[in-house]
Design goal:
With 493 residues, this protein is α+β, with helices and mostly antiparallel strands. The chain has 2 domains: 2-173, Chloramphenicol Acetyltransferase, CATH 3.30.559; 230-470, 2-Layer Sandwich (Chloramphenicol Acetyltransferase), CATH 3.30.559.30. It contains 15 helices and 15 strands. The chain has helices at residues 6-14, 36-46, 77-80, 92-104, 140-145, 173-194, 201-218, 222-226, 251-261, 265-284, 329-349, 352-357, 364-377, 443-473, 482-492; strands at 2-3, 22-30, 55-58, 68-71, 81-90, 114-122, 126-134, 242-250, 294-301, 315-322, 384-389, 397-398, 401-409, 418-425, 428-436. The strands form 3 sheets. The protein has a 6-stranded mixed β-sheet, with helices on both faces. It has a 6-stranded mixed β-sheet with strand order 8-15-14-11-9-10, with helices on both faces.
């Protein structure tokens, strides 16, 4: 029996009728689909590795403490593993529409918070798996580690037989209240006592002051962002329905741009997304200024290497202004790169993990009300969420069948009506776009614009690289030779 962290509880409290807070993915596979029974047996054999998948959320009465994870005495895997099909031969468009409907539906909050759908009927002898896991249970980085739950590194891997499972006895309401009250009194003191490198209140205050000075020097000021014109037409109320689109790029494309124009692969990715939003706003007639930006929240993992695979959220976030008003793609890349460099310096100088853990001091009732009030009131500060999850660079298999593609699904909430989940697998990077149904009737313009942004940057990079490649390909001539003289003469002209 485990208590949720404050961050996980925040995701749990954020759940509502119009804002399902699960993350998900769609994975495509080669070859004939396995039987439903074989997939169920595989999962049953793997579930002991992740006990959370048999647990449900148990709120503490009167919200005197953060919710608990307890074993579900009525766990039935046949409820969580579903079987469906598209009319054969199913297209990618049909799979996308099906996945959009499945991923847009809420999980049953009274049961373990996950679902998995086996999809048959795809063209070219393919099949797919649609998965959903609530954000309070796992973040993107841990979710990638949990691929070991059902994925293999070789097609001929063997699996253990499913074992019987006996749920642990659930605590009574009285014991939950007593445990919460005890923890509320003791946990903050224990956390303060365990803070590293803090010898007392004076030293702690000095540390906070130093962190504040570092932040002031390295992070773009909120005042500056407050006066930057943002595409606020992209904000608005969120309904119960979703539109989902996807596009992709090859790693060689992003690396070619990075080599020619500088920055990181992630900088190139964000710049391509900037082009997508620029196309969207231009099509809507809302590209009002060359200073216009689309502000996106970019989650950042602060998980240590020894915590990979743990079932809780260890994430912070930064805000990046995508320069959609800027017509020059290279200038857009330069602007994105500058912001990301500042954020990197800030995250290295400030203990983001300690900032996150400070949520443990917030009273659970206030945490619940605060999260819900924020989401219900909406916000106009950012217009999108963009999260990049690095996936495996080696082939993965399920029951001997090779995974050929994977696309991520990220929830939307709080007036931010669009999220983009970027997932890398082998040599491909996919962009899964989740958007409010009414707010984004033109979501395909955004996905097409991202692809155009990749091609636009690649064209510039290739053009810039061509003269350099030609220069390196020229044969060197001996000093004083006729070739050298001709070159010198031509240069003088």
């Amino acid at each position: 029996m485990d208590r949720m962290s404050a961050l996980d509880a925040g995701f749990f409290y954020a759940e509502s009728e119009n804002t399902p807070m699960h993350v998900g993915s769609v994975a495509g596979f080669e070859g004939p689909a396995p039987t439903y029974g074989d997939l169920v047996r595989l999962l049953l054999s793997k579930l002991p590795l992740v006990p959370r998948y048999r647990q449900r959320v148990r709120p503490v009465p009167m919200q005197l403490g953060r919710p608990m994870w307890v074993d579900d005495p009525h766990f039935q895997i046949l409820y969580h593993v579903r079987h469906t099909a598209v009319p054969s031969p199913g297209s990618d468009e049909q799979l996308r529409n099906l996945a959009g409907r499945v991923l847009g539906q809420r999980l049953d909050m009274a049961k373990p918070l996950w679902e998995l759908w086996l999809v048959e009927g795809l063209a070219d002898n393919r099949w797919a798996i649609i998965s959903k896991v609530h954000h309070c249970m796992v973040d993107g980085i841990a979710g990638t580690d949990l691929m070991q739950l059902m994925f293999d590194l070789t097609p001929d891997a063997t699996h253990d037989e499913p074992q019987d499972w006996t749920p642990r006895r659930n605590p009574s309401d009285l014991s939950l209240v007593a445990g919460a009250l005890t923890e509320n009194m003791t946990h903050p003191l224990q956390q303060l006592m365990s803070m590293p490198n803090v010898g007392g209140a004076v030293r702690a205050a000095k540390g906070v002051a130093q962190s504040s000075r570092t932040l002031a020097q390295t992070v773009p000021s909120l005042a500056r962002q407050a006066v930057t014109p943002t595409a606020r037409s992209l904000n608005g109320p969120i309904g119960p329905h979703r539109r989902w689109a996807w596009t992709e790029g090859k790693f060689e494309e992003f690396k070619a741009v990075r080599r020619a124009l500088g920055g990181t692969v992630n900088d190139v990715v964000l710049t391509a997304i900037s082009t997508g939003f620029r196309d969207l706003l231009e099509r809507r007639g809302e590209l009002s200024s060359d200073r216009l930006v689309v502000r996106t929240l970019v989650p950042v993992s602060v998980r240590r290497a020894d915590e990979r695979g743990s079932l809780n959220n260890q994430i912070s976030a930064v805000f990046v202004d995508l320069p959609v008003g800027q017509a020059d793609p290279v200038a857009r890349l330069t602007a994105v790169r500058g912001q990301m460099d500042e954020h990197k310096r800030a995250l290295q100088a400030v203990d983001a993990r300690s900032i996150i853990s400070m949520g443990d001091f917030v009273a659970p009732t206030l945490l619940s009300l605060g999260v819900r009030a924020t989401l219900q009131a909406g916000q106009m500060w950012c217009q999108a969420v963009t999260t990049n999850v690095p996936g495996p660079r080696v082939p993965l298999y399920v029951l001997g069948k090779r995974m050929c593609s994977a696309t991520a699904y990220v929830p939307i909430a709080g007036g931010t009506r669009c999220s983009i989940g970027i997932f890398s697998y082998l040599n491909t990077m996919t962009f899964g776009i989740n958007a409010d149904f009414d707010g984004y009737p033109d979501v395909d313009v955004l996905s097409g614009g991202i692809r155009r942004g990749i091609e636009e940057l690649l064209a510039v990079a290739t053009k810039d690289a061509a003269p350099e490649a030609a220069r390196k390909a020229e044969p060197e001539s001996e000093p004083g030779s006729r070739t050298a003289k001709k070159t010198t003469t031509a240069a003088a002209r």
